[in-house]
Specification:
Blueprint: H1 6-12, E1 21-27, E2 30-39, E3 43-48, E4 58-62, E5 66-73, E6 82-88, E7 91-93, E8 100-102, E9 105-111, H2 117-137, E10 150-156, H3 165-179, E11 182-188, H4 194-201, E12 209-214, H5 216-227, H6 232-235, E13 240-244, H7 250-259
Parallel strand pairs: 10-11, 10-12, 12-13
Antiparallel strand pairs: 1-2, 1-9, 2-3, 3-4, 5-6, 6-9, 7-8
Helix pairs in contact: 4-5
The protein binds adenosine-5'-triphosphate.
Adenosine-5'-triphosphate binds near residues 158, 192, 194, 218 and 246.
Length: about 260
């Protein structure tokens, strides 16, 4: 990015945090307009240029709502530009129903400050790293240092609920894991106690978290599997996640409600 221009730094920040990075880019799918990006510890402000009036054409994304950011080169060899995409899930008003829900917003920028594709890619990577780091620092529950890449074991019960867990995973979860840069192994349980036995025997050091996509029953099995291990005292500290795949999903609903 460009050096932070002193005169712009204060108004573009959120008033509390100084601007850590500043750059001017186009959107991936609209190269005509240019946007000023200001990254602070808390948020990413996107200001359409020229900034005629404060707060017009300006959108601020909270890094707490960001699941990840990745950088990549152009598909087209004739394009010297590089790209970075940030994935946000802010609360937005629902369409045609009351209340708010998290909705996906992808912001994809084109870096073309030089004629050198490698230089542009380095710049895009710097932004992607800074935005990803910022999103991790802003998570409500900090679970210590995250290993990169982070690796999950996902246990999915294909029979749970109306038998739609696998479809729901493919349609809604897979993409978010990719956006967050999380590697995962998906195990589809074949019968009762499959997950319990697997968790009892597996080398847990391979996984940063165990994610259950099912109802309460499969989580119950996984907790039992962890407690049946010789190293249960350590094993039970493995972070567990639950994604609603069952019919009731009472536990998933309350955990996600309290986790925001
Ligand atoms: N492939 C499978 N075939 C049959 N049963 C399975 C399979 N995999 C897991 N199970 C068992 O199915 C039981 C019910 O699963 P779970 O509670 O997760 O779903 P559910 O009953 O649909 O959800 P909810 O608790 O929300 O009503 C669990 O005890 C689990 O051991």
């Amino acid at each position: 990015g460009l050096p932070v221009p002193g005169a712009l730094a204060a108004p573009l920040g959120n008033g509390m945090c100084p601007v850590a990075m500043y750059g001017e880019f186009a959107f991936r799918h609209n190269r005509k307009s240019r946007y000023a990006l200001s990254l602070t510890e808390r948020d990413l402000a996107v200001q359409k240029l020229p900034a005629v009036q404060a707060a017009r054409g300006r959108v601020v994304f909270n890094l707490r709502d960001c699941v990840g950011c990745r950088a990549y080169g152009a598909d087209d060899h004739a394009d010297v530009g590089a790209y970075f995409s940030a994935y946000f899930y802010p609360f937005r008003k629902r369409w045609a129903s009351p209340g708010v829900a998290r909705q996906r917003v992808e912001q994809c920028f084109r870096v073309a400050s030089t004629q050198d594709p490698h230089g542009n890619l380095d710049e895009a990577r710097k932004w992607a790293r800074a935005i990803s780091d910022g999103s991790v620092c802003n998570r409500p529950q900090k679970t210590g240092e995250l290993r990169r890449p982070c690796t999950f074991l996902v246990l999915l019960n294909p029979q749970s609920g109306k038998g739609q867990a696998h479809t729901l995973f493919t349609r809604h979860v897979q993409g978010i894991l990719q956006e967050a840069g999380i590697l995962y192994t998906l195990i589809i349980t074949e019968c009762q106690n499959h997950a319990r036995e697997l968790v009892r025997e597996t080398d847990l050091s391979q996984w940063d978290a165990l994610v259950i996509m099912s109802g309460d029953g499969l989580l119950f099995e996984v907790v039992n599997g962890l407690m049946e291990r010789e190293d249960w005292e350590e094993a039970i500290k493995t972070p567990l996640g639950i994604l609603p795949g069952g019919s009731g999903n009472a536990l998933a609903a309350s955990i996600h409600h309290y986790a925001g």
